[in-house]
Amino acid sequence: MKKIILLLAVLFMAVASQAQTLQSLFEKYSENENFEYVSVGGNGMTVASANGNVAKSKNAGPKKKSTKILTLKAGADSQIMKAFETDLNAVLETGKFETTLETRSKGESTHIYYRSLGNDNADQLIVAKTKTELSLIWESGKLGKGQMKYGISSTGDDEVLDEANLDKR
């Protein structure tokens, strides 16, 4: 009986260690040469790409803790794209994200996911996918649902729509 309990405990620890969080997903792929990574937050901004260029600039908003962008440029059938999508879907399933927007058009799709972390803290994840590129934009911090970004306005003027702007239309 002790052997069975020990085996189950070891198996449980192995499964738990494989569980991914949004942070671990970004950490795993941000170092991969197939990805471009941008992180904005805290005391400044860091931009890095596969070719090793790094730039820093001070610019942080008062409410957001951070914004991170991870972009993969690869074919939809490539192994790296399939692995990345599998890991992303696992994070979305275990992370209790709520879908707030979904669009699809001519081989392109955009999904916006949101989860509350308590005390007005939240995560917003924007997933934009084309036939040759997948981008994740992760915003974290004080993001009440009234401050969430919903998308680009239909007028094409790149105005970010939030609940306040939607009410004005």
Task: Describe this structure as you would to a colleague.
The protein is of the alpha+beta class and 169 residues long. It has one domain (23-168). It has helices at residues 2-18, 22-30, 79-94, 163-168; strands at residues 35-41, 44-48, 54-57, 64-73, 98-105, 108-118, 121-129, 133-142, 151-152, 160-161.
Counting helices, strands and paired strands, the structural category is alpha+beta
Strand order of the largest sheet: 3-2-1-4-8-7-6-5
Summed over residues and divided by their number, the pLDDT gives a mean of 74
Helix content: 25-40%
- Tally of discrete structural domains: 1
Rg, rounded, reads 18 Å
Indicate the low-confidence ranges by residue numbers. Answer: 7-19, 45-50, 56-62, 150-169
Strand share of the residues?
35-45%
Series of secondary-structure elements, N-terminal to C-terminal: HHEEEEHEEEEEEH
Largest β-sheet summary = 8 strands, antiparallel
Number of helices: 4
The termini sit apart by 66 Å
Total E-strand runs: 10
Shape: globular
